[in-house]
Amino acid sequence: MRKKIIAGNWKMNKTPSEAVALINELKPLVQNEDVDVVFCVPAISIVPAMEAAKGTNINIGAENMYFERKWCIYRRNRS
């Protein structure tokens, strides 16, 4: 059976320190060997979020990424 993945982002609503605090708060709530959890955080929070998630089932992703270059024309922001 495939492992389930739960993913979400918070669209630039947290500073790096707030992101770490949220991850630490959510760790016990999402702890489950049968599920991988992905938090997509703003670019400025990626490194602190990865440190906070070390040793857990939480993976860190980035917001606003897409594989087609032309899409960037319409989304000129980077979180």
Question: Key features?
Answer:
single chain, alpha/beta, 3 strands, globular
Give your account of this protein's structure.
A three-stranded parallel β-sheet has the order 1-2-3. The radius of gyration is 14 Å and the shape is globular. Helix 2 links the parallel strand 2 and strand 3. Helix 1 runs parallel beside helix 2. The termini are far apart. It has 79 residues and is α/β, with parallel strands linked by helices. It is 34% helix and 23% strand.
Q: In what order do the strands lie side by side in the largest sheet?
A: 1-2-3
| Percent of residues in β-strands | 15-25%
Oligomer designation: single chain
C-alpha termini separation: 35 Å
Protein structure class? alpha/beta
- DSSP helical segment count: 3
Number of β-strand runs: 3
Order of helices and strands, N to C? EHEHEH
Q: Which range best describes the helical content: under 10%, 10-25%, 25-40%, 40-55%, 55-70% or over 70%?
A: 25-40%
Return the average pLDDT rounded to an integer. 84
Runs in which pLDDT lies below 50 for 5 or more consecutive residues are none
Q: What integer value in Å does the Rg equal?
A: 14 Å
Largest sheet: 3 strands, parallel
C-alpha geometry: globular
Secondary structure: elements and pairs:
Blueprint: E1 4-9, H1 16-30, E2 35-41, H2 46-53, E3 58-62, H3 71-74
Parallel strand pairs: 1-2, 2-3
Helix pairs in contact: 1-2
